[in-house]
Amino acid sequence: MKIGFIGLGVMGRPMAQHLIEAGHELYLYRVKPVSAHLVERGATACESAMHVAQLADIVILMLPDTPDVETVLFGENGVAPGLGSGKLVIDMSSISPLATRDFAARTEALGCDYLDAPVSGGEVGARSASLTIMVGGKPDVFERAKPLFEKMGQNITLIGGVGDGQIAKAANQIVVALNIQAVSEALRFSSKAGADPAVVRKALMGGFAASRVLEVHGERMINETFEPGFRIRLHHKDLSLALESARLLELMLPNTALVHQLMNGALAKGLGDKDHSALIKAL
Description:
By secondary structure, this protein is of the alpha/beta class. 53% of the residues lie in helices and 14% in strands. It has helices at residues 12-21, 36-40, 49-55, 66-74, 97-108, 122-128, 139-152, 164-192, 197-204, 212-223, 232-249, 254-268, 279-282, and strands at residues 2-6, 25-29, 44-46, 58-61, 88-91, 113-116, 119-120, 131-136, 153-160. The strands form two sheets. Strands 3-2-1-4-5-6 form a six-stranded parallel sheet, with helices on both faces. The radius of gyration is 20 Å and the shape is globular. The N and C termini lie far apart (48 Å).
């Protein structure tokens, strides 16, 4: 397939590389030195998002936040002016569900299809092509895109209509954030009470407290290796989206709000670009 890929960050780069290795033609925008190897592997660098959309049949976005997606889609020289009837836009960013539905409606008005397909698994999952991919959109459009998803992830689920993928991702981020808080508190408690947190973690991994967060991020907390997988700044953004949606739904998310405040503290300490396991530093 001819695929456009916009958003070559920590996760976008390996995701794009998997598609290249699978034999697809890739058209890229905003190629920087850190992503130049993708061009060396056969991808084509384009001068604008519009140029990408003109050349590709499917355009994938992997961007930081809602305004970034809107600008790339509908801004000057954006994707929308380059789209033609029958093309497909897949947004794999983590953004607002309400904005997603608006973006989909504007894209579909151009005669194109739209999927939201946010991911979970961080840099590790992106590199190993083991991402969890949560998709919102029409079933037939999902089937069209599924072979691409299978090159980037393993647990691929059509949640429901457009925007439902973003709802699932917000739910995922709530669970992960609260787990990180729990592991942070447990390890801080162990250390301050005089036990070796590394040994405590090992013991907990054999019991009901075992989790992927305890396994991966617990080790990062103990070793203080906080180079990102997934930045606190981005997780903070995702919780902001969840809390804004909860406000509109008149729904209480008290523990999500608490972790959001802890992340505010982490941002204030200059930890925004560290891995979200560095939340322990805010405690």
